[in-house]
Design a protein that fits this description.
Layout: H1 3-11, H2 17-22, E1 28-33, H3 37-40, H4 47-55, H5 58-72, E2 75-81, H6 95-100, E3 122-123, E4 127-131, H7 143-150, E5 154-160, H8 165-175, E6 179-183, E7 187-188, H9 194-201, E8 208-210, H10 212-222, E9 230-231
Length: about 230
């Protein structure tokens, strides 16, 4: 064991044993939800949400989790919401969708708005799953098939928003038979006070609620895969 690994174990509290088994890297994947420049970046279409994600530290902890996943062999998937310039195929059956059409920043395919936001790193092995419709980063997308092909049974869900996409992803993951894990300090919603209420009264009923640090500790404790290098986001 390297000196760095010994130091990490010395200063890191032991994670819960149930999480250690749940989060073994070979059967686990990390999903970032809408951590894109047009949502949580400096030119966000939703500045209040972007501010909460930044000021709460949630976006930084997403970056921490992604970097740790790269180092421990955990598969990373980035779920991106986008739309065509002509809006073809996009939903219009809810107030949220109609409001999105009026926003000054549009999440257009191929634009800077749908690039992964800094400081979240993207590696060559990461999978970017883009959707043109709906509310969920899982339902109606490639995520389920990709996870099954990769042999993943546990999904760590991070990103935004705690209002809509995060609970949607958790419910879909559980309905599909995955164990959902939510690092409560790596998700954000508006207002900021809403996120802990959502976690306590809803997500904790269907997912294992933890912290980013505890997830990283579990991965490092059981990792067997060599580190992978990251490269600039596409």
């Amino acid at each position: 064991m390297t000196q760095g690994a010994l130091l990490f174990r010395a200063v890191t509290p032991s994670p819960r044993e149930d999480l250690v088994e749940l989060l073994r890297p070979e059967g686990c994947a990390l999903l970032t939800v809408e951590c894109q420049r047009g949502v949580v970046g400096p030119d966000s279409a939703l500045p209040e949400l972007a501010a909460v994600a930044q000021e709460s530290g949630a976006l930084g902890r997403v970056a921490q989790l992604v970097a740790a996943a790269h180092d421990t062999g955990v598969q990373v998937l980035h779920a991106v919401a986008e739309r065509r310039a002509d809006g073809r195929g996009a939903n219009r059956n809810a107030p949220l969708f109609r409001a999105v059409e009026r926003l000054p920043v549009r999440q257009l395919t191929g634009s800077a708005a749908v690039e992964i936001a800094e400081p979240v790193p993207v590696a060559a092995e990461d999978l970017v799953v883009r959707r043109l419709h709906g509310l969920s980063p899982i339902a109606g997308t490639e995520v389920d098939a990709l996870l099954r092909n990769l042999g993943c049974r546990t999904l760590v869900i991070t990103g935004v928003s705690a209002n809509v996409a995060i609970p949607g992803a958790v419910f879909d993951a559980v309905n599909l038979g995955y164990a959902a894990v939510v690092p409560e300090d790596a998700i954000a919603g508006v207002p900021a006070s809403y996120t802990p209420a959502m976690v306590r009264h809803t997500l904790a009923l269907v997912a294992a609620v933890t912290t980013a640090d505890e997830v990283v500790a579990c991965w490092r404790r059981t990792a067997v895969t060599p580190s992978r290098s990251s490269f600039p986001a596409p």
